């Protein structure tokens, strides 16, 4: 039998307008109410214990409601003692007489005395330069008001409220001049000695952290707009390399802006606008940047290397991609280490070489540029495979030690025996004569 009387359920039902409730349902509803109340109180006791207290408070009950996704109780707390009244028609049923209050009376009532217990509540004023829309901060409508020295008030429901707008990210004049000088050198004089000194400063200076978001945006914007400018792209990658080398900078929050630019310089279809532009070297630098980022921040972002590996593998196995894109993908995968090459490149090597072989032969590919690109991709594959084989052979140090020579004397002469040279032919489908 439930400890909640069925008369209580009947009274509550009548208070919300249900007058014809079946009496047979009252015991079942009373049992369910008891179960729900016990559940909420158990959660409230847990909240009390986690708060290191021995007294159950109303805040604990509200926290229990939040944990159970129940709407909290709204109302006006009064310090007066509770007034119980007997329910009409029931001898042993009482209820609390809740007096209805007008909002006008509550607003016009004098303020109570300040409580003795003080509390400090923390909230985020800004996260990465963006102000969150929470009640503690200024409302968004107020921030949208045009800037005017005389407009220092914001009217809400006809009431004037003085608002202090959040402080903007202010850079010192020295940092502004530094940023402007670095960007100017990057765009116009990337081959000068002064630019090399600027790279050294970016890699060692400890006071450049306020400029990191600005350099990140500058690199991303310039890469997206200047894919045909090889020298500018190379200078931008050198800036990224210097920023990553600086031990005083906190780069992690800006990796999501830097990495797309680096990947673009690695697997873009066309980098530069001239035949003399050595975009192969640019792709090599970008591959080393990818490997450096994964090595340094892979433990912080556990999905960083899998996502980059997936992108590079897709570019490598996509037959619609250009050969320079395949080259960049192979270099990026090889830079990530021998394990990546062994798991992702070697299993796909034989079918890929069957497609690459016609592009390398003069009889089948008349375009000299295409043949050159194919041989570049082939060389990248050979280096990646050789690196993987070397790592496997390092497990057997005896195979990597220099061959020993046997000496013996015969008729007063010293004879030396040399082991015969053994040539190993790799990938016979491509190399016919070893």
From TrEMBL:
InterPro entries: ARM-type_fold, Histone-fold, TAF6, TAF6_C, TAF6_C_sf, TAF_TATA-bd_Histone-like_dom. GO terms for cellular component: nucleus. Its main location: nucleus. SMART domains: TAF. Keywords: Activator, Nucleus, Transcription, Transcription regulation. Gene3D superfamilies: Histone, subunit A (1.10.20.10), TAF6, C-terminal HEAT repeat domain (1.25.40.770). Residues 2-68 form the TATA box binding protein associated factor (TAF) histone-like fold domain. Coiled coil: none annotated. The keyword Transcription regulation applies. It is found in: Nucleus. The keyword Signal does not apply. It comes from the Eukaryota. Belongs to the TAF6 family. This is TATA box binding protein associated factor (TAF) histone-like fold domain-containing protein. It comes from Ilex paraguariensis. The lineage of its organism: Eukaryota, Viridiplantae, Streptophyta, Embryophyta, Tracheophyta.
